[in-house]
Specification:
Distance between the termini: 17 Å
Largest sheet: 8 strands, parallel, barrel
Keywords: Glycosidase, Hydrolase
Low-confidence stretches: none
CATH class of the largest domain: Alpha Beta
Number of strands: 17
Oligomer: single chain
Number of domains: 2
CATH superfamily of the largest domain: Glycosidases
CATH architecture of the largest domain: Alpha-Beta Barrel
Catalytic activity: Hydrolysis of terminal non-reducing N-acetyl-D-hexosamine residues in N-acetyl-beta-D-hexosaminides
EC number: 3.2.1.52
Strand content: 15-25%
Bound molecules: ligand TNX
Radius of gyration: 23 Å
Number of helices: 15
GO molecular function, one term: beta-N-acetylhexosaminidase activity
Strand order of the largest sheet: 8-9-12-13-14-15-16-17
Helix content: 25-40%
Mean pLDDT: 97
Organism: uncultured Actinomycetales bacterium
Structural class: alpha/beta
Length: about 500
Amino acid sequence: MSPVMNTVIPRPSSVLGTGRSFELPADARILVQPNAPEVAQIGEFLAAALRPATGLALPVTAGAAQERGTIHLTTAAADPALGAEGYELLVAPHGVLLAAPRPAGLFRGVQTIRQLLPAAVERRTVAPGPWTLPTGVLRDAPRFAWRGAMLDVARHFFPVADVKRYLDLLAYYKFNVLHLHLTDDQGWRIEIKSWPRLAEYGGSTAVDGAPGGYYTQEQYADLARYAAERYITIVPEIDMPSHTNAALASYALLNCEGEAPALYTGTAVGFSTLCMGKETTFRFMDDVLGELAALTPGPYLHIGGDEADSTSPEDYQTFMRQVQAIVQSHGKTVVGWGEIAQAPLTPGTMVQHWRQDLTPQAAASGHKVILSPAGKTYLDMKYDEATPFGLSWAGYVTVQDAFAWNPGAYLAGVGEDAVAGVEAPLWTETIPTFAEAEFMLFPRLLAVAELGWSPAAGRTWDEFRSRLAHHGPRLEGLGVNFFRAPEIDWPETL
Ligand code: TNX
């Protein structure tokens, strides 16, 4: 059977198969543009991905011209119209050329190369070849600039190794944002040097007595670096003014009454609030957001703002006015949940829609929107009544539900131009470890990847469904604990 080019997820903008194949020879090399350390690093990433299963040495060497039997990576002479993350891939019977105007585009193209090889290439031990790619020409660039996933590390804590694994999997499907929900009533997960009890005490708990934990600043910086090597931006969230019981429990002086509540391990929402009548609250916000801004190479700080049911409307306005000024003073852009659209927004502030809210009004005054509608993108929702964990307040979310909607025409009055992109949150009240997380994320996350990256034109559920089936063995090779959704005709296992 001659290999085909149209199994890639997310679906590339254009693919022209030419019906032959290129087989990696025993002495295959990865050829990188000379004097371009970033390109060489991407070449090393590709080699490291392919070596374990292929058993090939795959040396990475510098070279400006194409050579037989190589995969050639270059930013020279690539079409600038491909943009910040686009790339062009030419697979000929004698070798591969990957060209992109920017290194990020090469990194995205490298994921396509991986996906064009047999699924067994994702195994971590030597597998039988031959290691062939289908020949053809592929031109590709993303539809949206923000292709995100959110992990709630507050309700249950996920150690650094889990987050790195998640970053690896996100990279494979061309995501470029990982939003970390770092704080909530049940736990504070980031070390703040000026307020050490937040992590030490406020981070000691999780839902239902599960182990707590937090990231030291060194660990967080390491995660940000690991993400950057995958061209993924980490967007850290400090959820305020509600969802703050862990902070309020850690410092009595943050409470209006001067008394600290107990730590909380339940799953109710909306009961806690920062005290807007206290100067200390604003010093706290400035210290926390200042340290976080200094640790964060990306341009965004997420300030939460959701479900502030115990904050008066006047206090909520005060909070929003102050928090936007503070974030701006630290050189970052504010992102907040849809509720923030109830308050006056500073130019540049982005709104993350998750349920019925005033997002359309914010969009009308020029604010960019991130779409996370719960009934489509909340991957903590059960697939169906038989799903062993997860919630169902927004309904069941099948793979087809996650796939079959158009972000550019989802909210009345929020057109394609107002949409920064899509993001799939995983809230973890019922998700104790990353194995359960994988089960909820996969395969629905692949539908989100497709919505964020691929053109809407020509999109059909039937076509996606058959392409998704090819990813069963890939996810298996990657060791992912995925849900064998009955909607998909999964092929024989690896
Ligand atoms: C709503 S979405 C919340 C979270 C919960 C989630 C559970 C949002 C901004 N707030 O606090 O974890 O529902 O699905």
